Amino acid sequence: MANDKPFQPFRNLNAKIASIPMILTALVIFVGCTLWTIFYSFTKSKLLPKLDFVGFDQYERLWGTRRWLVSIENLLIYGSLSLIFSLLIGFLLAALLDQKIRFEDTFRTILLYPFALSFIVTGLVWQWILNPDFGVQHAVRSLGWESFNFDPLYNANIVIYGVLIAGLWQGTGLVMCLMLAGLRGIDEDIWKAARVDGIPMWKTYLFIVIPMMRPVFITTIVIITSGIVRVYDLIVAQTGGGPGIASEVPAKYVYDYMFQSQNLGQGFAASSIMLLTVAIIVIPWAYLEFGGKRRG
Amino acid sequence: MADSQVLTDTAAVTGPFGRRPKPIFSRRNIMLYGTLIVIAVYYLLPLYVMVVTSLKGMPEIRFGNIFAPPVEITFEPWVKAWSEACTGLNCDGLSRGFWNSVRITVPSVIISIAIASVNGYALANWRFRGSEVFFTILIFGSFIPYQVMIYPIVIVLREIGVYGSLTGLVIVHTIFGMPILTLLFRNYFVSVPEELFKAARVDGAGFWGIYFQIMLPMSLPIFVVAIILQITGIWNDFLFGVVYTKPDTYPMTVQLNNIVNSVQGVKEYNVNMAATIITGLVPLTVYFLSGKLFVRGIAAGAVKG
User: Fold this and answer.
1) DSSP B76-103
2) Cβ of B34: how many Cβ atoms within 10 Å?
3) Are the CB atoms for A148 and A141 separated by under 8 Å?
4) Is B192 in the same domain as B250?
5) 3-state secondary structure string, B42-83?
6) Distance CA B150, CA A146 (A)
7) Domains of chain A
């Protein structure tokens, strides 16, 4: 099983044949298609891809388009809030469930079930709950508070927070599960020692347990952020990018330009920027996690 | 001392350990369970709203409260969502999307798991020059936003003549399920004792012999985890469905979105919610039946990407 043997192309032939799908996927799809898109983002492709190079024109136009800027702004707001709140809520829920409670499995099942639902279902349910004429606003008003105002999906200034509510409902269960696994991985003796020393519980969490869970936090952050950059279905279902363009996101920009406005070059450029965003997050993480030593 | 050690060890496996706090109705417990119940109610609320809305008639929705239980239970919205709701010109309801989704999900789950399990097995037990490089590319590839690859894949599928068909979509699901599934199976097969593998080799078993006679029977739990992961993932997919299929072959999620977010006609909220809950029913059933295995699946999936 050692790798350092002389080159024998027919050794392990069956394994090589069996790995053909993986090799094709890795080379053709992940490397090939990605390079293809980056390459064509420098062309003037419209309805069909064509090799008519225009340098960085597509990118210049991209950053000059209001819709793209709104998309990026939304992604930043949604992304940072979603990251902070998922971590915070996820950790608090995990800490609650870790208090040696009864019915832990029941509570965990309830908190995690939204994660089994698609973003489309999530978006549509919350679109209904946040509907101003029938949903929460209507319910509170009919209780007597006539001036109550809560219509995030119809208000361009706060629509992205309406999406955030739905996103957090769907995704915090996952974060909770990861955090719970992290908490369970911490040696019980640490807790005993902290108790003996008379350190209050919140201090133990903040200064001892959380620093010890650093790897869990880092993994979770990488998972959440790579999900945030991809956010698409939720927006399509819940707001359709509206009102106007107030809740547009980059992933939707890419899809719309590629498959609806027949402006492939813009789509390629926008998706390349998305790739760059992910790379900025993933590469330092990979370096921290695997840097120096190679893990087999 | 030895006894207590054993006790702690078994407790560590089964979950929380140590003595339970004595007084059940202490202030701490009331606070703790109170908070948990409030949170649980919040998480359950959308499901509740979906169900009650789908059981009401339109007049009741118009004049009532979305949180109120239905006065008069009607199953008509469910029937309508299933067999009459319109998307564009087609008015045959969600049933078409449902069967499309079934025809997409079943082969995708089987093929992707078959390929990924053999891949994982090759990576764990039959490493060859370069195998780790491809695996690393695969894992990092899983972080690439799909939007970067969707268009070139359209070209690839068109070249091999399956663009717009269910076959094409099955291929796409197989491709994008591969990183996580391969990782899952590889990590599992690595943990199988090597002696077993060597003994089989000595007895003359080859690549496929060992896979089918030793690895496969030993790894049924991980196959179940993979099946759960794939059923929910593929059923819930929207992006690939909308890009790689045509209106006739749209999966359920795409059709659902078209039904609910269509701008024509009077909005029938009860039908919309019935349609939504029908679409969510498959992954929810898988989730509630699988319990801990689902958690294991996402925990395994969460390791990387």
Assistant:
1) HHHHHHHHT--BTTB-S-THHHHHHHHH
2) 10
3) yes
4) yes
5) HHHHHHHHHHHHHCCCHHHHHHCCCCCCCCCCCCHHHHHHHH
6) 48
7) 64-290 (1.10.3720.10)
What is the residue range of B7's domain? 2-78
Judge if B39 and B106 occupy the same domain. no
Q: Which of A97, A255, A286 sits opposite B147 (nearest CB)?
A: A255
Give pLDDT tens digits for A72-124.
Answer: 999 999 999 999 999 999 999 999 998 888 888 889 999 999 999 999 999 99
A57 shares contact with chain B (CB less than 8 Å): no
Q: Is residue B163 part of a domain?
A: yes
Identify from B105, B148, B156, B176 which residue to disrupt to test chain A contact, counting A C-beta atoms within 10 A and taking the largest count: B148
Q: How do residues B4-20 score in pLDDT, each as one tens digit?
A: 444 444 444 556 666 65
Q: Are B208 and A89 in contact (CB under 8 A)?
A: no
Residues B122 and B164 in one domain: yes
Determine the number of helices (DSSP H) and then strands (DSSP E) in chain B. 16, 0
CA distance A179 to A219: 10
CA A210 to CA A95: how far, in whole Å? 11
Chain A contact for B269 (CB, 8 A cutoff): yes
Which of residues B52, B78, B104 is at a domain's end? B78
